[in-house]
Every structure is written in C-alpha cells, then in structure tokens.
Amino acid sequence: MNRISVRLADWIKDNSDIRHIRDAVFVAEQHIPPELEFDAEDPQAVHFLALEGDYPIGTARLLADGTIGRISVLKDWRGLKVGDALMHAVIAEAQARDLKQQTLSAQVHATPFYERLGFKVVSEEFLEAGIPHVEMVRESCDLA
C-alpha cells in the first residue's frame, strides 16, 4: 500500500471524487437518501480528500462554524487509519481558522473513534437519517 495523504479539496474540481465516496458509503451502504446526503452547505464547506497515491479513498468537510461532517472512507480502506488522517487534517484546518470548538454528529458506533481524538458526547442519542447518532464537541485545547 502507498502512503495515505490528505489534501484540501475543491468542491467544483473534486466533486466527482467526493460524490463517489459519499455515494458509496452513505447512499449505497447506509441507505441514506441522496437528497439528505448532499446539501446546500457543500458549496461553501472546506472539503478534504484522503488519497492512496492518486486514488481518492476518503473525504470529510468542515463548515465555517466548526462543524465537521460527511466523514467517509471507502470500505476497502477502513481499518487502515484513513479516518485518523482525515480527522487530523480537519482538526488542524479548524485550528488554523481559529475555530476553537469543533462539533460533529457521530454515528453511535463511531463514538470511541472520535473520543480518541478529544471529542466528548454532549447529547442523548437521536436518529438522523434513521441511524442512531450523538452530538460531540472538541475544544481546541484538547489533544488531537
């Protein structure tokens, strides 16, 4: 396997790669309707692409208010620390933008992953697109 890298993505230029990953993970695997997966926040968001060599394998986005979302890694690359690489890049970008607090809506099964990155559960469990989630928050002073 080549080295995994993460770079800032351009919503227009990298749109097909971002859509391919999010379609595979959220729409095909998790049966989230495409109209819920892609929204009006996408064009203004800061997007990230994880790559193995030149091949896009993961994506995430950061909103202007510090909300992190749409974190997704293609199935064949899970368990290889791609999610860690994506999240470290997103957190670093949030801090560079002086976003002192990062928030996300985590699928319940993924909460231990986010807790390792300094996020804390701040809500009761709720359903989002039919999947159990919790809200999580990370302060910039927390370890990444």
Outline of this structure?
This protein has helices at 15-29, 34-37, 82-96, 111-116; strands at 4-9, 46-52, 55-62, 67-73, 101-107, 120-121, 126-128, 131-139. It is of the alpha+beta class.
Description:
The protein has a single domain (4-139), classed as 3-Layer(aba) Sandwich (Aminopeptidase). β4, α3 (82-96) and β5 form a beta-alpha-beta unit. It starts with a strand and ends in a 5-residue tail after the last strand. The protein has helices at 15-29, 34-37, 82-96, 111-116; strands spanning 4-9, 46-52, 55-62, 67-73, 101-107, 120-121, 126-128, 131-139. Strands 1, 2, 3, 4, 5, 6, 7 and 8 form an eight-stranded mixed β-sheet that branches. The longest helix is centred in the N-terminal third of the chain and has 15 residues, at 15-29. The mean pLDDT is 93. It is α+β, with helices and mostly antiparallel strands and 144 residues long. Its EC number is 2.3.1.-. Keywords: Acyltransferase, Transferase. Pfam families: Acetyltransf_10. Residues 4-144 form the N-acetyltransferase domain. This is GNAT family N-acetyltransferase.
